[in-house]
Write a structure and sequence with these properties.
The protein is 75% helix and 0% strand. Helix 4 packs antiparallel against helix 5. The longest helix has 24 residues.
């Protein structure tokens, strides 16, 4: 795994070229990455041990961006519904802004799953903040007594698949329109009933 700091310009070229690696990373060679990105092969090997190192770098960078986006959404004031809605919109906006890297992650989940830092990045970037919102929502009586781990995973998976489907089918994501249609789908399953809300506030 690379220990050298990758220059911003080089990182940008790799990110822009990621669409070429999304489908068949198993068949990609460092020579292909060099050709697609315009980065000399020798320069790639200076910063990366091999193509798996390039993949890990791209996914770590994407997940760090996701963490920042979700962290900003967490600052939104309001109840659990308002905060979860903000997180969903943040994730969709992140997918829309990083279409190639997002598809790269989806197409290489098996390989990425063997990279511990990637799994921890997904947890820190999305699951942990959503677990926090869910836990606080349950405690406040705003949500049903859901399994916060399973629910956070379900929300992440739903938003990711819906967003990637839009990218692949239409080439882009209508963030607000998609969130307006998607969010009620799972909110209806986790919102507290009126009776339980009344008991919690009574």
């Amino acid at each position: 795994m690379t220990t050298r700091t990758v220059p911003e310009g080089l990182a940008g070229k790799l990110t822009s070229a990621a669409a070429g690696f999304a489908v068949a990373f198993d068949d990609v060679r460092m020579e292909d990455i060099a050709a697609s990105s315009g980065i000399p092969r020798a320069t790639l090997y200076y910063y990366f041990a091999g193509k798996d190192d390039v993949l890990a770098f791209l996914l770590r960078s994407m997940l760090e961006d996701l963490r920042s986006s979700v962290a900003t959404a967490l600052d939104v004031e309001g109840d659990a519904r308002t905060r979860l809605d903000a997180v969903v919109r943040a994730q969709l906006a992140h997918l829309a802004a990083n279409p190639a890297a997002s598809q790269l992650l989806l197409m290489n989940l098996g390989r990425a799953g063997r990279l511990g830092q990637i799994a921890s990045g997904i947890d820190a970037g999305f699951h942990a903040p959503v677990r926090r919102i869910l836990g606080e929502g349950v405690a406040a009586g705003e949500l049903a007594d859901v399994d916060v781990e399973v629910t956070a995973t379900a929300i992440y998976a739903s938003v990711t698949i819906v967003g990637l489907h839009a990218l692949m089918v239409t080439g882009g994501i209508d963030v607000d329109g998609t969130a307006d249609r998607l969010f009620p789908f799972f909110w209806s399953g986790i919102a507290a009933s009126r009776a339980s809300t009344a008991r919690a506030t009574g």
